[in-house]
Amino acid sequence: YSSYASEVFTITHPIVEATLVIMDKYKKLERIGKGSFGSAYLAEKRGEPGKQYVIKEIQIDPRDQKAAVREARLLAALDHPNIISCKEHFMLAPGQKVLCIVTEYADGGDLRKLLKTYHETGRRLSEDLVLDLLVQTCLALKHIHDRKILHRDVKPENIFLMQSNVVKLGDFGVAKVLSNTLACADTQTGTPYYTSPEICHGLRYNHKTDVWSLGCVLYEMITQTHAFDGRNQKQLFQNIAYGAFDTTRLDHCTMRLKQLVIAMLAKTPRDRPSINGILKTPLVRDRIQTFLSAQEMQDELGHTVLHGQHLFRKPPSKAATSPRAMKHPPPPPIAIVRPIVVRERQPPVVRGYAAPTAAMKQRGDAMAAKKERVQALVAKQRELAVIRLVQEKKARLARKQAEVDRRKEVRLFSNVP
Protein backbone atom coordinates (compact mmCIF):
# COMPACT_ATOMS: atom_id res chain seq x y z
CA TYR A 1 0.00 0.00 0.00
CA SER A 2 3.00 2.29 -0.16
CA SER A 3 2.19 5.21 -2.42
CA TYR A 4 2.28 8.97 -2.56
CA ALA A 5 -0.77 11.20 -2.85
CA SER A 6 -0.47 13.40 -5.92
CA GLU A 7 -3.93 14.81 -6.50
CA VAL A 8 -5.52 18.24 -6.38
CA PHE A 9 -7.38 18.38 -3.08
CA THR A 10 -9.71 20.93 -1.51
CA ILE A 11 -8.47 21.57 2.02
CA THR A 12 -11.13 22.45 4.58
CA HIS A 13 -9.90 23.95 7.86
CA PRO A 14 -12.18 25.04 10.72
CA ILE A 15 -11.31 28.68 10.01
CA VAL A 16 -9.82 28.98 6.54
CA GLU A 17 -10.89 27.23 3.36
CA ALA A 18 -8.64 27.21 0.35
CA THR A 19 -7.83 25.06 -2.63
CA LEU A 20 -4.24 23.85 -2.59
CA VAL A 21 -2.20 21.50 -4.71
CA ILE A 22 -0.81 18.73 -2.51
CA MET A 23 2.14 16.94 -4.05
CA ASP A 24 3.51 13.97 -2.17
CA LYS A 25 2.22 15.24 1.17
CA TYR A 26 1.43 11.91 2.82
CA LYS A 27 2.97 8.49 2.30
CA LYS A 28 0.74 5.49 2.95
CA LEU A 29 2.54 2.76 4.90
CA GLU A 30 -0.13 0.08 5.31
CA ARG A 31 -3.87 -0.41 5.53
CA ILE A 32 -4.89 -0.82 9.16
CA GLY A 33 -8.66 -1.05 8.78
CA LYS A 34 -11.44 -1.62 6.30
CA GLY A 35 -15.21 -1.25 6.67
CA SER A 36 -18.39 -0.71 4.71
CA PHE A 37 -17.66 3.02 4.44
CA GLY A 38 -14.03 2.85 3.30
CA SER A 39 -10.49 2.14 4.47
CA ALA A 40 -7.98 3.49 6.99
CA TYR A 41 -4.26 3.75 6.31
CA LEU A 42 -1.22 4.35 8.49
CA ALA A 43 0.75 7.16 6.89
CA GLU A 44 3.70 9.49 7.36
CA LYS A 45 3.88 13.15 6.48
CA ARG A 46 6.70 14.14 4.19
CA GLY A 47 9.24 16.23 6.06
CA GLU A 48 8.24 14.76 9.44
CA PRO A 49 9.94 11.32 9.54
CA GLY A 50 8.81 9.08 12.36
CA LYS A 51 5.57 10.97 13.00
CA GLN A 52 2.62 8.83 11.99
CA TYR A 53 -0.95 9.69 11.11
CA VAL A 54 -4.10 7.83 10.10
CA ILE A 55 -5.79 8.64 6.79
CA LYS A 56 -9.41 7.52 6.51
CA GLU A 57 -10.81 7.35 2.99
CA ILE A 58 -14.60 7.39 3.22
CA GLN A 59 -16.84 6.69 0.24
CA ILE A 60 -19.75 9.16 0.21
CA ASP A 61 -22.71 9.78 -2.03
CA PRO A 62 -22.35 12.96 -4.12
CA ARG A 63 -25.70 14.15 -2.76
CA ASP A 64 -24.34 13.92 0.80
CA GLN A 65 -20.99 15.56 0.02
CA LYS A 66 -21.86 18.98 1.46
CA ALA A 67 -23.28 17.48 4.65
CA ALA A 68 -20.26 15.19 5.06
CA VAL A 69 -17.78 18.04 4.63
CA ARG A 70 -19.80 20.19 7.02
CA GLU A 71 -19.73 17.48 9.69
CA ALA A 72 -16.03 16.82 9.12
CA ARG A 73 -15.34 20.54 9.55
CA LEU A 74 -17.18 20.53 12.87
CA LEU A 75 -15.33 17.44 14.10
CA ALA A 76 -12.03 19.03 13.09
CA ALA A 77 -12.88 21.92 15.41
CA LEU A 78 -12.99 19.58 18.43
CA ASP A 79 -9.90 20.28 20.53
CA HIS A 80 -9.60 18.18 23.67
CA PRO A 81 -6.75 16.11 25.14
CA ASN A 82 -9.00 13.02 25.30
CA ILE A 83 -10.23 13.17 21.69
CA ILE A 84 -8.33 11.95 18.62
CA SER A 85 -7.51 15.21 16.87
CA CYS A 86 -8.42 15.75 13.23
CA LYS A 87 -5.47 17.40 11.47
CA GLU A 88 -7.21 18.15 8.18
CA HIS A 89 -9.74 16.76 5.77
CA PHE A 90 -10.27 17.11 2.05
CA MET A 91 -12.17 15.77 -0.91
CA LEU A 92 -10.32 13.87 -3.59
CA ALA A 93 -10.79 14.79 -7.24
CA PRO A 94 -14.53 15.28 -7.97
CA GLY A 95 -14.97 12.01 -9.86
CA GLN A 96 -13.68 9.83 -6.97
CA LYS A 97 -16.38 10.67 -4.36
CA VAL A 98 -13.95 10.09 -1.49
CA LEU A 99 -13.62 12.18 1.68
CA CYS A 100 -10.19 11.90 3.33
CA ILE A 101 -9.77 12.64 7.03
CA VAL A 102 -6.27 12.84 8.55
CA THR A 103 -6.12 12.15 12.30
CA GLU A 104 -3.42 11.54 14.87
CA TYR A 105 -2.27 7.96 15.41
CA ALA A 106 -2.80 6.21 18.76
CA ASP A 107 0.46 4.37 19.37
CA GLY A 108 -0.89 2.36 22.32
CA GLY A 109 -3.63 0.47 20.50
CA ASP A 110 -7.23 0.47 21.66
CA LEU A 111 -9.23 -0.73 24.65
CA ARG A 112 -10.27 -3.93 22.85
CA LYS A 113 -6.61 -4.92 22.52
CA LEU A 114 -6.03 -4.20 26.23
CA LEU A 115 -9.07 -6.27 27.28
CA LYS A 116 -7.91 -9.15 25.07
CA THR A 117 -4.45 -9.09 26.66
CA TYR A 118 -5.88 -9.23 30.18
CA HIS A 119 -8.33 -11.99 29.21
CA GLU A 120 -5.63 -14.19 27.65
CA THR A 121 -3.46 -13.88 30.76
CA GLY A 122 -6.38 -14.58 33.12
CA ARG A 123 -6.19 -11.19 34.82
CA ARG A 124 -8.76 -8.55 35.66
CA LEU A 125 -8.42 -4.82 35.23
CA SER A 126 -7.93 -3.18 38.60
CA GLU A 127 -10.64 -0.82 39.74
CA ASP A 128 -8.20 2.09 39.64
CA LEU A 129 -7.41 1.36 35.98
CA VAL A 130 -11.12 1.00 35.18
CA LEU A 131 -11.84 4.39 36.76
CA ASP A 132 -8.93 6.02 34.91
CA LEU A 133 -10.29 4.75 31.59
CA LEU A 134 -13.84 5.76 32.51
CA VAL A 135 -12.96 9.28 33.66
CA GLN A 136 -11.01 10.19 30.53
CA THR A 137 -13.70 8.76 28.25
CA CYS A 138 -16.36 10.73 30.15
CA LEU A 139 -14.35 13.94 29.74
CA ALA A 140 -14.22 13.34 25.99
CA LEU A 141 -17.97 12.64 25.79
CA LYS A 142 -18.72 15.71 27.89
CA HIS A 143 -16.77 17.83 25.43
CA ILE A 144 -18.83 16.64 22.45
CA HIS A 145 -22.17 16.53 24.30
CA ASP A 146 -21.71 20.13 25.41
CA ARG A 147 -21.38 20.96 21.72
CA LYS A 148 -24.57 19.05 20.87
CA ILE A 149 -22.81 16.15 19.16
CA LEU A 150 -23.57 12.46 19.63
CA HIS A 151 -20.87 9.86 19.12
CA ARG A 152 -23.33 6.97 18.56
CA ASP A 153 -20.65 4.27 18.37
CA VAL A 154 -18.94 4.13 21.77
CA LYS A 155 -17.20 0.76 22.05
CA PRO A 156 -13.76 -0.57 23.09
CA GLU A 157 -12.52 -0.43 19.49
CA ASN A 158 -13.10 3.35 19.44
CA ILE A 159 -11.42 4.10 22.78
CA PHE A 160 -7.73 4.50 21.95
CA LEU A 161 -4.69 4.43 24.22
CA MET A 162 -1.46 6.38 23.99
CA GLN A 163 1.95 5.34 25.25
CA SER A 164 1.70 8.30 27.64
CA ASN A 165 -1.28 6.60 29.41
CA VAL A 166 -3.74 9.07 27.88
CA VAL A 167 -7.12 7.79 26.69
CA LYS A 168 -8.55 9.26 23.50
CA LEU A 169 -12.01 8.81 22.03
CA GLY A 170 -12.03 8.49 18.27
CA ASP A 171 -13.78 7.25 15.14
CA PHE A 172 -16.55 9.79 14.79
CA GLY A 173 -17.63 8.17 11.53
CA VAL A 174 -21.27 8.06 12.64
CA ALA A 175 -21.32 11.18 14.82
CA LYS A 176 -24.51 13.23 14.73
CA VAL A 177 -24.80 16.97 15.25
CA LEU A 178 -27.95 18.01 17.09
CA SER A 179 -29.78 21.29 16.68
CA ASN A 180 -30.26 21.52 20.47
CA THR A 181 -29.31 19.51 23.53
CA LEU A 182 -32.74 17.88 23.84
CA ALA A 183 -33.03 16.96 20.17
CA CYS A 184 -33.31 13.33 19.18
CA ALA A 185 -31.96 11.38 16.24
CA ASP A 186 -33.90 8.68 14.45
CA THR A 187 -31.37 6.61 12.47
CA GLN A 188 -29.98 3.23 13.50
CA THR A 189 -26.21 3.16 13.85
CA GLY A 190 -23.71 1.69 16.25
CA THR A 191 -22.46 -1.77 17.18
CA PRO A 192 -25.07 -4.39 18.26
CA TYR A 193 -23.50 -5.28 21.64
CA TYR A 194 -23.56 -1.62 22.69
CA THR A 195 -26.92 -0.63 21.12
CA SER A 196 -29.36 1.08 23.48
CA PRO A 197 -32.93 -0.18 24.15
CA GLU A 198 -34.49 2.88 22.51
CA ILE A 199 -32.69 2.06 19.25
CA CYS A 200 -33.83 -1.58 19.51
CA HIS A 201 -37.42 -0.32 19.84
CA GLY A 202 -36.94 1.96 16.83
CA LEU A 203 -37.48 5.08 18.94
CA ARG A 204 -35.78 8.46 18.73
CA TYR A 205 -32.76 8.92 20.97
CA ASN A 206 -30.44 11.58 22.36
CA HIS A 207 -27.16 11.80 24.28
CA LYS A 208 -28.35 9.16 26.78
CA THR A 209 -27.67 6.48 24.15
CA ASP A 210 -23.94 7.25 24.48
CA VAL A 211 -24.32 6.80 28.25
CA TRP A 212 -25.83 3.34 27.68
CA SER A 213 -22.99 2.34 25.34
CA LEU A 214 -20.40 3.56 27.83
CA GLY A 215 -22.20 1.57 30.55
CA CYS A 216 -21.84 -1.57 28.41
CA VAL A 217 -18.12 -0.81 27.97
CA LEU A 218 -17.74 -0.25 31.73
CA TYR A 219 -19.48 -3.58 32.45
CA GLU A 220 -17.14 -5.31 30.00
CA MET A 221 -14.05 -3.74 31.59
CA ILE A 222 -15.13 -5.06 35.00
CA THR A 223 -16.40 -8.53 34.03
CA GLN A 224 -14.63 -9.20 30.68
CA THR A 225 -18.01 -10.26 29.24
CA HIS A 226 -20.74 -8.45 27.32
CA ALA A 227 -23.62 -7.10 29.37
CA PHE A 228 -26.08 -8.56 26.82
CA ASP A 229 -25.59 -11.41 24.38
CA GLY A 230 -27.61 -13.58 22.01
CA ARG A 231 -27.34 -16.34 19.43
CA ASN A 232 -28.13 -13.85 16.67
CA GLN A 233 -28.78 -10.15 16.26
CA LYS A 234 -32.56 -10.53 16.69
CA GLN A 235 -32.20 -12.34 20.00
CA LEU A 236 -29.53 -9.86 21.09
CA PHE A 237 -31.87 -6.93 20.45
CA GLN A 238 -34.68 -8.70 22.34
CA ASN A 239 -32.38 -9.26 25.32
CA ILE A 240 -31.29 -5.62 25.28
CA ALA A 241 -34.86 -4.35 25.00
CA TYR A 242 -36.54 -6.68 27.51
CA GLY A 243 -33.87 -8.69 29.33
CA ALA A 244 -31.67 -7.99 32.33
CA PHE A 245 -27.91 -8.22 32.71
CA ASP A 246 -26.18 -10.32 35.36
CA THR A 247 -25.42 -8.01 38.28
CA THR A 248 -23.76 -10.80 40.30
CA ARG A 249 -20.69 -10.49 38.07
CA LEU A 250 -20.17 -7.04 39.62
CA ASP A 251 -20.05 -8.31 43.21
CA HIS A 252 -16.25 -8.20 43.36
CA CYS A 253 -16.12 -4.41 42.78
CA THR A 254 -17.08 -1.65 45.20
CA MET A 255 -20.75 -0.85 45.77
CA ARG A 256 -20.40 2.67 44.35
CA LEU A 257 -19.01 1.37 41.06
CA LYS A 258 -21.68 -1.35 40.88
CA GLN A 259 -24.45 1.21 41.43
CA LEU A 260 -22.97 3.43 38.71
CA VAL A 261 -23.05 0.56 36.17
CA ILE A 262 -26.66 -0.25 37.09
CA ALA A 263 -27.66 3.41 36.70
CA MET A 264 -25.96 3.74 33.30
CA LEU A 265 -27.74 0.59 32.04
CA ALA A 266 -31.24 1.73 33.01
CA LYS A 267 -33.76 0.77 30.30
CA THR A 268 -35.45 4.18 30.25
CA PRO A 269 -33.20 7.03 29.02
CA ARG A 270 -34.54 9.49 31.57
CA ASP A 271 -33.46 7.14 34.37
CA ARG A 272 -29.84 7.17 33.20
CA PRO A 273 -27.45 9.87 34.41
CA SER A 274 -25.99 12.29 31.92
CA ILE A 275 -22.24 12.48 31.38
CA ASN A 276 -22.19 15.62 33.53
CA GLY A 277 -24.06 13.69 36.23
CA ILE A 278 -21.55 10.84 36.08
CA LEU A 279 -18.62 13.25 36.42
CA LYS A 280 -20.23 14.79 39.51
CA THR A 281 -20.67 11.50 41.38
CA PRO A 282 -18.25 11.21 44.34
CA LEU A 283 -16.63 8.08 42.89
CA VAL A 284 -15.71 9.74 39.59
CA ARG A 285 -15.17 13.25 40.91
CA ASP A 286 -12.51 12.04 43.34
CA ARG A 287 -10.71 10.32 40.47
CA ILE A 288 -10.80 13.39 38.21
CA GLN A 289 -8.32 15.10 40.51
CA THR A 290 -5.67 12.72 39.13
CA PHE A 291 -6.02 14.28 35.67
CA LEU A 292 -7.19 17.86 36.21
CA SER A 293 -6.08 20.71 38.42
CA ALA A 294 -8.56 22.55 40.63
CA GLN A 295 -8.99 25.30 38.02
CA GLU A 296 -9.46 22.78 35.21
CA MET A 297 -12.06 20.93 37.27
CA GLN A 298 -13.88 24.22 37.79
CA ASP A 299 -13.72 24.87 34.06
CA GLU A 300 -14.99 21.41 33.13
CA LEU A 301 -17.61 20.82 35.82
CA GLY A 302 -18.59 24.32 36.93
CA HIS A 303 -19.69 25.51 33.49
CA THR A 304 -18.29 28.98 34.27
CA VAL A 305 -16.05 28.77 31.21
CA LEU A 306 -16.26 26.70 28.07
CA HIS A 307 -13.57 24.02 28.39
CA GLY A 308 -10.70 26.24 29.43
CA GLN A 309 -11.42 29.14 27.06
CA HIS A 310 -11.48 32.09 29.45
CA LEU A 311 -13.70 34.22 27.24
CA PHE A 312 -17.12 33.51 28.68
CA ARG A 313 -16.77 34.01 32.41
CA LYS A 314 -19.84 34.81 34.47
CA PRO A 315 -20.14 38.58 34.99
CA PRO A 316 -18.98 39.71 38.45
CA SER A 317 -21.47 41.05 40.97
CA LYS A 318 -22.25 44.77 41.19
CA ALA A 319 -20.46 45.02 44.54
CA ALA A 320 -17.26 43.67 43.04
CA THR A 321 -17.37 46.16 40.15
CA SER A 322 -18.17 49.24 42.21
CA PRO A 323 -15.57 52.10 42.13
CA ARG A 324 -14.65 51.52 45.78
CA ALA A 325 -14.07 47.80 45.36
CA MET A 326 -12.00 48.15 42.18
CA LYS A 327 -8.42 49.30 42.62
CA HIS A 328 -7.88 49.46 38.87
CA PRO A 329 -10.35 50.06 36.06
CA PRO A 330 -11.53 46.87 34.34
CA PRO A 331 -9.83 45.91 31.08
CA PRO A 332 -11.78 46.44 27.89
CA PRO A 333 -13.98 43.50 26.88
CA ILE A 334 -12.52 40.92 24.54
CA ALA A 335 -13.77 41.45 21.04
CA ILE A 336 -14.34 38.24 19.15
CA VAL A 337 -13.86 39.10 15.50
CA ARG A 338 -15.65 36.81 13.12
CA PRO A 339 -14.79 36.79 9.42
CA ILE A 340 -17.46 38.18 7.14
CA VAL A 341 -18.20 35.84 4.29
CA VAL A 342 -19.67 37.49 1.21
CA ARG A 343 -21.49 35.01 -0.95
CA GLU A 344 -22.27 35.63 -4.56
CA ARG A 345 -25.98 35.80 -5.20
CA GLN A 346 -27.22 32.91 -7.28
CA PRO A 347 -30.16 33.21 -9.70
CA PRO A 348 -33.29 31.37 -8.58
CA VAL A 349 -33.75 27.86 -9.93
CA VAL A 350 -37.12 27.29 -11.55
CA ARG A 351 -38.44 23.76 -11.44
CA GLY A 352 -41.72 22.32 -12.48
CA TYR A 353 -41.93 20.29 -9.29
CA ALA A 354 -40.10 19.95 -5.99
CA ALA A 355 -38.00 16.82 -6.03
CA PRO A 356 -37.74 14.98 -2.71
CA THR A 357 -34.49 15.65 -0.90
CA ALA A 358 -32.15 13.01 0.45
CA ALA A 359 -33.21 13.92 3.99
CA MET A 360 -36.88 13.37 3.19
CA LYS A 361 -36.09 10.03 1.56
CA GLN A 362 -33.99 8.97 4.52
CA ARG A 363 -36.74 9.93 6.96
CA GLY A 364 -39.32 8.07 4.85
CA ASP A 365 -37.16 4.96 4.82
CA ALA A 366 -36.69 5.20 8.60
CA MET A 367 -40.45 5.55 9.16
CA ALA A 368 -41.15 2.58 6.88
CA ALA A 369 -38.56 0.48 8.71
CA LYS A 370 -40.04 1.50 12.05
CA LYS A 371 -43.52 0.52 10.85
CA GLU A 372 -42.24 -2.90 9.80
CA ARG A 373 -40.61 -3.42 13.19
CA VAL A 374 -43.81 -2.46 15.02
CA GLN A 375 -45.85 -4.81 12.83
CA ALA A 376 -43.38 -7.64 13.45
CA LEU A 377 -43.52 -6.98 17.20
CA VAL A 378 -47.35 -7.00 17.20
CA ALA A 379 -47.38 -10.23 15.20
CA LYS A 380 -44.93 -11.80 17.65
CA GLN A 381 -47.08 -10.72 20.62
CA ARG A 382 -50.18 -12.19 18.98
CA GLU A 383 -48.35 -15.44 18.32
CA LEU A 384 -47.25 -15.63 21.95
CA ALA A 385 -50.82 -14.89 23.11
CA VAL A 386 -52.21 -17.72 20.95
CA ILE A 387 -49.58 -20.12 22.26
CA ARG A 388 -50.44 -19.12 25.83
CA LEU A 389 -54.18 -19.68 25.24
CA VAL A 390 -53.54 -23.12 23.71
CA GLN A 391 -51.37 -24.10 26.65
CA GLU A 392 -54.02 -22.95 29.13
CA LYS A 393 -56.70 -24.91 27.27
CA LYS A 394 -54.57 -28.06 27.29
CA ALA A 395 -53.98 -27.61 31.01
CA ARG A 396 -57.73 -27.31 31.68
CA LEU A 397 -58.46 -30.44 29.64
CA ALA A 398 -55.74 -32.32 31.47
CA ARG A 399 -57.21 -31.31 34.84
CA LYS A 400 -60.70 -32.40 33.75
CA GLN A 401 -59.40 -35.75 32.49
CA ALA A 402 -57.57 -36.29 35.76
CA GLU A 403 -60.77 -35.59 37.70
CA VAL A 404 -62.74 -38.08 35.52
CA ASP A 405 -60.10 -40.76 36.06
CA ARG A 406 -60.17 -40.15 39.80
CA ARG A 407 -63.95 -40.55 39.96
CA LYS A 408 -63.78 -43.77 37.95
CA GLU A 409 -61.29 -45.18 40.42
CA VAL A 410 -63.54 -44.20 43.35
CA ARG A 411 -66.56 -45.96 41.80
CA LEU A 412 -64.46 -49.01 40.96
CA PHE A 413 -63.19 -49.41 44.50
CA SER A 414 -66.63 -48.75 46.02
CA ASN A 415 -68.11 -51.75 44.12
CA VAL A 416 -65.45 -54.14 45.36
CA PRO A 417 -66.95 -56.48 48.11
Characterization of the model:
The protein is an alpha+beta fold and 417 residues long. Among the domains are: 19-105, Phosphorylase Kinase, domain 1 (2-Layer Sandwich), CATH 3.30.200; 106-176 and 193-303, Orthogonal Bundle (Transferase(Phosphotransferase), domain 1), CATH 1.10.510. It has helices spanning 65-76, 111-120, 127-145, 197-200, 208-223, 233-242, 255-264, 275-279, 282-288, 294-301, 358-414; strands spanning 3-4, 8-12, 17-21, 26-34, 38-45, 52-59, 86-91, 98-104, 149-150, 159-161, 167-169, 176-177. Strands 1-4-5-6-8-7-2-3 form an 8-stranded antiparallel beta sheet, covered by helices on one side. The protein has a two-stranded antiparallel sheet with strand order 9-12. A hairpin with a 6-residue loop joins strand 7 (86-91) and strand 8 (98-104). Helix 3 (127-145) runs antiparallel to helix 5 (208-223) and helix 5 (208-223) crosses helix 7 (255-264). The longest helix is centred in the C-terminal third of the chain and has 57 residues, at 358-414. The radius of gyration is 29 Å and the shape is globular. Mean pLDDT is 78; it is low at 1-23, 177-183, 304-342 and 350-355.
